[in-house]
């Protein structure tokens, strides 16, 4: 569905939005037609009306600018139903986000049933624009961003940036906001010798991705040049947006560190309206903030990341069915016992338990070991898993090494996906390596807490728990070149709990799920004092989030934020410098 097909007459912007908006005090309603026209002219006519993806399936629609001209359409509805849970399709649409929390407002939205997109019950209501920004600019140039910043400063209309719409905390949407959509910035350049602008020397091979490039496109470009880049597990996540600025963990983190360790240069428009190049030779403070400080320091037009050698990655997969929670954690105990060795050897991977007696899985990737070396390292897990096969009904369906290959091959063949098009909240906690090396009592305490949290989460469509071996133990960042919390460098795992909900969840049910997730994490927080949580995979209710995410780096980050964004124009939930009480955050139902 081309965006242009959704463009409606600009003449009805102010009037229709005022008529539909519940918040009559919204700055959006005070914008005059002349101001919209001027903004549209300054971005070469690329100001567009946002329409929820599923609108053709609904008889009535509210909140969309010019909604009078929108009618149901069975052919288009059927097309949307067939791709509702397709992430590649969703990231191409402005009116769709990966999780419906980004689209909903106080429990209302315009959603299909992700488990059965043809379910008429979901469509038997009014389609609400919800938290989707009513208008967006299809960004092509730095001057588009500058025009939007000037407009936001003058009018007070909140400005947000949307790349792919993957953000779990709904920060690439906001009700009554103007959005900058970077999806169509798709240029890529591979450099055999990359000299950051303003520097004299090459820093080696590198890949530049404009802001709309996703990780699968970056993996393809790296692969075509016999290289590997450190990127996200989910292929449709953006390569230059929230993932990279927030730090970014990867199956390659064990070998090459987090995404922030590999970033070499950004081109951004900072919220003060200036186009800037940030790297180790200029705007160094901004560069440091963009290496792990999260979103909000500027609108990124492109980033350049290191291109590492291509590898023949060894892959081990374990899948076990009908295994109790206690038995799963006994497998985890054997696996975690190898953690120091796995770190030294640069492994990445994931341990994925289940709440119910379903299928649990382990996926392991090593870029540099030989077949024999990899098999030797992982043998204790394989042997233990074989030893429990058949006991208490446990059924081991896969247990061993799979065909190896380059990172693109690994991505295409082995990386599991998560459901999209439904509601999900997740929250993370990094598990310190010391919890695994300080004796049985400490480990028992941690495992008891992890199980208690998992029991609290309960069953669901979403993976209830992921234990990701994506921590940079081999990459100490001794000179504090990134702004990530130092605890990342001494952590063994990124542990993530997740809960999900359907189209018909009420605001109260959403709120209860957030609380459940928060309380599940509390069990693990209690036994991991001083650890950190990942700002991109964060519990919305994390208390004192800025200290928890960035620790000793927070004061410097706040200073940099104030320098480049004195009016806090580019802000979002849990960003550096966010004001929890701002009207923008009423949507969090707190
Ligand atoms: C299915 C799934 C799998 C994931 N897997 C991983 C993983 O393996 N490792 C990991 O570390 N994280 C992972 N994440 C979390 C991911 O890092 C965050 O969701 C991240 O915020 C996504 O960034 P995005 O730019 O693609 O998404 P968006 O929702 O478009 O943006 C996220 C944030 O970045 C801002 N932003 C986006 N583009 C720009 C830009 N050009 N300039 C300025 N600000 C911008 C937005 O305003 C928003 O605050 C995953 C998320 C999902 C949903």
- Whole-number tally of structural domains: 3
Give the second-level CATH assignment, the architecture of the largest domain.
3-Layer(aba) Sandwich
Radius of gyration: 24 Å
Summing up helix and strand content along with how strands pair, one would put the structural category as alpha+beta
Number of strands: 20
Report what the structure shows.
Pfam families: BBE, FAD_binding_4. This is FAD-binding domain-containing protein. Residues 129-310 form the FAD-binding PCMH-type domain. InterPro entries: BBE, FAD-bd_PCMH, FAD-bd_PCMH-like_sf, FAD-bd_PCMH_sub2, FAD-linked_Oxase-like_C, FAD-linked_Oxidoreductases_BP, Oxid_FAD_bind_N, Oxy_OxRdtase_FAD_BS. Keywords: FAD, Flavoprotein, Oxidoreductase, Signal. The protein is α+β, with helices and mostly antiparallel strands and 590 residues long. The chain has three domains: 3-181, no CATH class; 188-310 and 552-588, Uridine Diphospho-n-acetylenolpyruvylglucosamine Reductase, domain 3; 313-550, Vanillyl-alcohol Oxidase, Chain A, domain 3 (3-Layer(aba) Sandwich), CATH 3.40.462.20. The chain is built from 21 helices and 20 strands. Strands 17-14-16-15-19-20-18 form a seven-stranded antiparallel beta sheet. A five-stranded antiparallel beta sheet has the order 7-8-12-10-11. The protein is globular, with a radius of gyration of 24 Å. The two termini are 36 Å apart. Residues 1-22 have low confidence and may be disordered. The site of flavin-adenine dinucleotide (FAD) has 33 residues, from strand 5, helix 9 and strand 12.
């Amino acid at each position: 569905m081309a965006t242009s097909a959704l463009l409606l007459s600009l003449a009805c912007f102010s009037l229709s939005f005022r008529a539909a908006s519940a918040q009559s005090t919204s700055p959006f309603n005070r914008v005059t037609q002349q101001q919209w026209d001027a903004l549209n002219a300054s971005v070469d006519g690329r100001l567009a009306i946002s329409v929820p993806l599923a609108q053709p399936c609904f008889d009535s629609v509210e909140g969309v600018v010019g909604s009078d001209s929108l009618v149901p359409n069975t052919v288009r509805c059927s097309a949307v139903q067939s791709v509702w849970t397709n992430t590649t399709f969703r990231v191409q649409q402005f009116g769709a986000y990966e999780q419906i929390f980004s689209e909903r407002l106080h429990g209302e939205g315009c959603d299909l049933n992700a488990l059965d997109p043809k379910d008429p019950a979901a469509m038997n209501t009014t389609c609400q624009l919800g938290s989707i920004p009513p208008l967006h600019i299809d960004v092509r140039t730095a001057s588009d961003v500058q025009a939007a910043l000037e407009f936001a400063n003058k009018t007070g209309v909140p400005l947000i940036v949307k790349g792919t719409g993957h953000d779990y905390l709904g920060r690439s949407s906001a009700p009554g906001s103007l959005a900058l959509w970077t999806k169509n910035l798709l240029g890529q350049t591979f450099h055999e010798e990359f000299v950051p602008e303003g520097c004299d020397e090459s820093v080696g091979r590198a890949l530049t991705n404009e802001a709309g490039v996703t990780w699968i496109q970056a993996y393809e470009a790296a692969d075509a040049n016999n290289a590997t880049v450190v990127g996200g597990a989910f292929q449709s996540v953006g390569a230059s947006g929230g993932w990279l600025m927030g730090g970014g963990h990867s199956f390659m983190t064990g070998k090459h560190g987090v995404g922030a360790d590999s970033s070499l240069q950004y081109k951004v428009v900072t919220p003060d309206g200036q186009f800037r190049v940030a790297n180790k030779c200029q705007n160094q403070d901004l560069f440091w903030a963009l290496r792990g400080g999260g979103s909000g320091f500027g609108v990124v037009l492109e980033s350049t990341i290191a291109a590492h050698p291509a590898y023949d990655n060894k892959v081990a997969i374990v899948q076990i069915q009908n295994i109790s929670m206690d038995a799963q954690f006994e497998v985890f105990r054997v696996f975690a016992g190898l953690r120091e060795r796995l770190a030294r050897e640069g492994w990445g991977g994931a341990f994925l338990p289940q709440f119910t007696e379903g299928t649990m899985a382990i996926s392991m990737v090593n870029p540099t070991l030989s077949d024999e070396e990899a098999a030797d390292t992982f043998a204790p897990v394989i042997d233990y898993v074989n030893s429990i096969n058949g006991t208490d009904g446990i059924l081991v369906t896969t247990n061993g090494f799979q065909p190896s290959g380059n990172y693109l091959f690994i991505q295409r063949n082995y990386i599991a996906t998560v459901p999209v098009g439904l509601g999900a909240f997740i929250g993370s906690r990094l598990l310190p390596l010391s919890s695994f090396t300080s004796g049985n009592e400490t480990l028992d305490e941690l495992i008891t807490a992890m199980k208690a949290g998992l029991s609290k989460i309960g069953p669901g469509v979403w993976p209830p728990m992921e234990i990701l071996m994506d921590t940079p133990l081999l990459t100490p960042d001794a000179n504090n070149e990134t702004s990530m919390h130092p605890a990342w460098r001494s952590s063994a795992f990124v542990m993530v709990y997740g809960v999900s909900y359907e189209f018909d969840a009420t605001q109260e049910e959403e709120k209860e799920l957030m609380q459940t997730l928060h309380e599940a994490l509390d069990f693990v927080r209690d036994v991991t004092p001083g650890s950190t949580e990942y700002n991109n995979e964060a519990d919305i209710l994390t208390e004192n989030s800025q200290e928890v995410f960035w620790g000793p780096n927070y004061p410097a980050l706040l200073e940099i934020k104030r320098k480049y964004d004195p009016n806090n124009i580019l802000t979002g939930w849990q960003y550096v410098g966010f004001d929890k009480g701002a009207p923008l955050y009423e949507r969090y139902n707190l």
